[in-house]
Amino acid sequence: MYVTGTFQTYIGSYFGLEKDSALTKDLLPTCVFLYIFTSPVGGFLAQRGLNPKTLIAIGSSVTISLFFISSCVSDAKAFFACYVIAFAFNHGVSYMAPIQ
Predict the structure, then answer these.
(1) H helix runs in 1-100, sequence order
(2) Contact call for residues 32 and 1 (beta carbons, < 8 A)
(3) Residue 63 in contact with residue 89, Cβ under 8 Å?
(4) Predicted structure pTM score
(5) What's the pLDDT score for residue 47?
(6) What pLDDT shows up at residue 64?
(7) Is 50 strand, coil or helix?
(8) What per-residue confidence (pLDDT) applies to 1?
(9) What is the reported pLDDT for 61?
(10) In 2-17, which positions are buried (b, 16+ CB within 10 angstroms) versus exposed (e)?
(11) Which residues 6+ apart lie within 8 Å of 73 measured at CB?
(12) Cα 53 to chain center, whole Å?
């Protein structure tokens, strides 16, 4: 999750945001906050006996799709929404496969 913190400077620069923009400062905390809600979904699917490969495939395909969409948008808020949801979904669903 710390990679998001590293990219905050570049994200702000790309979208022309101020150095201390609230949008870039809230990127990592929002990812962590949404991760709290997506990890029970991944845990539930893992406990239901879903194949780990399937669980990783679901999490990764949704994440890659949202990362691709976030790379195509030109609005900072749209990027923020896609990136945060993808990041949280990836950590919440794909990282639960080792629980089995």
Answers:
(1) 2-14, 22-25, 27-47, 52-72, 76-93
(2) yes
(3) yes
(4) 0.77
(5) 86
(6) 92
(7) coil
(8) 43
(9) 93
(10) eebeeebeebbeebeb
(11) 79, 82
(12) 19
Question: Would you say 91 and 1 are in contact if contact means Cβ atoms under 8 Å apart?
Answer: yes
pLDDT tens for the chain, 100 residues long, are 445 666 777 777 787 877 666 776 777 788 888 888 888 888 888 888 888 888 888 888 999 999 899 889 988 888 888 888 888 888 888 887 776 6
- Between the CA atoms of 89, 26, 68 and 10, what dihedral angle is there, to the nearest 10 degrees? -140
Distance between CA atoms of 90 and 58, rounded to whole angstroms?
A: 9
Sign for the CA dihedral angle at 84, 60, 74, 5 comes to positive
Length in residues, the chain? 100
Domain-wise residue ranges, the chain:
2-99
Please give the Cα distance from 47 to 44 (Å, whole number): 5
Rounded Cα–Cα distance for residues 85 and 20 (Å): 22
CA 56 from centroid of its chain's CA atoms: 14
